[in-house]
Amino acid sequence: MIAYLNGRFMPKKDICIPVDDRGFLFSDSLYEVIRYYPGHLFRPDAHIRRLNHGAGHLALSCTDFSCLIPVVRDLIRRNDMASRDALVYIHVTRGCAPRNHPFPSPAPDPTIYVCVTPFDPGAREHRRKTGIQAITVPDIRWARCDMKTTGLTANVLANQQAVENNADEAIFVRDGVLMEGTHSNFMAVFDNTVITAPLSNYILGGITRETVLDLCRDLGIRTAESPIYTSRIHLASELIVTGTTLEVTPIVTLDGRPVRNGSPGPTTRALQAAFKKRILF
Ligand SMILES: Cc1ncc(COP(=O)(O)O)c(C=O)c1O
Fold first, then answer.
1. Which domain range does residue 83 map to?
2. CA distance 93 to 58
3. Which residue from 185, 209, 248 has its CB within 8 A of the most atoms of ligand 1, so it is best to mutate?
């Protein structure tokens, strides 16, 4: 497998990151995961925009990573993946410096790592048909969830809790409001309206979330970006998670309680079909 590090393509197994890298020491770093469908990279510009947003807020020495789009395309070609399903992983850190909390001065060059791995959509496709089980967990994350940083300890712990409860995803709850999943955004259908948490510093602005809201407009489905309260969640007719790997996946049980008798609903189905079409454009 060929990967990319700081301007060079090389075998992934030969990549070394110094232990002084601030990504390693402090999680002082950002990442992106982009879905590659055979022949088509899904919304690379939106992913780079989000990466640039984080880089600006972290005041990295580079805040425009649009140069990585040709790198990603080159990696797909070099790894002979053009006609396969794949995931692109981009990881950008503040760079290397002796361990000290403040930003190093002068600012080091960022460390930029990109790799591509084959992705098997089969199991995910099955879950999109049958739906997944989810649990709710307290949102113990920090208050800058809008930046896709690699500081994912809370997400790891929550997802592990889901696994230990025979569930696939955990939905974070902050002050009685369902915010988002550990690696997904969360939506609920109330009275034929798709509701999702408003963009804020408490959730990640998902590329899939944005696409799905756009598809709702195309399909004439009403949407609202407003809080989803745990106290009202039993009134929802459908629950959905959205994400780069999950696409549009129905939740059929939440904390063990069936949603819609445990079967995916019509709004989810319509959005899944529309999403499939959108992938091709
Ligand atoms: C916390 C969180 N929310 C939402 C998402 C969904 O974002 P996207 O649709 O861009 O994959 C992710 C994706 O990894 C995530 O980690």
1. 2-119
2. 10
3. 185
